[in-house]
What does this fold into?
Amino acid sequence: MAAANRPLRVGIIGAGGIARDANVPAYRALGDQVELVAVADIVAAAAERMLQEQGFQRAYTSYEEMLAQEDLDCVSVCTPNKLHAPAAIAALRAGVHVFVVKPPALTADEARDMRAEAARSGRVLTVGFPTRFSAEAQAAKRYVDAGGLGEIYTGRITALRRRGIPSWGVFTSKELQGGGPLIDIGVHALDTALYLMGFPEPASVLGATHTHLGNRPPGPAPWGAWDWRRYDVEDVCNALVTFRNGASLLVETSFIQNIEVMEEFNVRLSGTRAGLRLRPFAVFGEENGTLVDSQAAWLPKGKSYHDLIANFVRAVRGEEPAVCTPDQAVVVQRIIDAIYRSAATGGGVEA
Ligand SMILES: NC(=O)c1ccc[n+]([C@@H]2O[C@H](COP(=O)([O-])OP(=O)(O)OC[C@H]3O[C@@H](n4cnc5c(N)ncnc54)[C@H](O)[C@@H]3O)[C@@H](O)[C@H]2O)c1
It folds into this structure.
């Protein structure tokens, strides 16, 4: 366990966008609680750039070598999804605490292996689900915890883009990412809904995926032209998830779909006393015989990623538990697996 009174020695695996724009600034914001020590990326130029621009001490082209050479306390795994489990497990085996960006892994089996390794090594394993830390989600959590919604029995999550296929990175590769909008953006909303619902045990899933537009030459492409010839993930993924406590959740996600909005990201939950919508935050209830909608007059500007990394660092120091747990990661990943399995088979499946 890292000494409480010295800076934690931090490494980064995967020196791309989420490392540069979210993880490193969040570590930096912690000042002398952390020391940015080493970065590994299979692309030497990417590792070198981060070394130069972000003030790391050493760069590697192999995370295995970095783990062997450096005496790190913790790493952020910021690679494409396919590398999350192998890199996290290698780090845990090396005695290093792990923060892995979302989604936890490609599959539920991988998430279980990561959980088992964290338990065996006694190291912290947590997942970067920033939406949970948003001001809206935290406000919603306070309502839920105070019983303001009553029993939550149904909900609907949306992570929709009209023309939002990333033209960078590997987001259109099933092999490297495990899927499209469901595992990439739907996972944020799914995790937040489960967090607010108290992570009920999933029961069954009926899912459907559609690919009709992403695999054709792009028309209007506000996010840039993507490589349609290599596009093999779903455009749209919809599902109905049921839980052992009787609750249900509707899931709607898309990278590209002919809909009226350019983008929508939301979580809506309904309970026996009231319902709520995350964005913009509102509660729908009944007061003194009148149906009443309440809106937040003000919410603090969230710094979700900073809060996530701060929670990770405090968890490594033994000061508080990590908010996103390996058990929760397995539940999220079980539902994603089941949705894709159901879509492939065309029928309902156990989650
Ligand atoms: N808000 C969020 O939570 C959020 C936002 C964006 C991305 N992400 C997640 O971050 C991950 C990366 O996304 P990104 O946008 O940073 O992609 P990116 O393509 O910008 O960066 C990924 C980096 O990983 C490197 N890499 C690939 N294989 C590697 C290996 N074996 N060892 C070391 N490095 C390797 C690549 O060379 C690249 O530099 C994805 O899992 C994605 O889901 C999360």
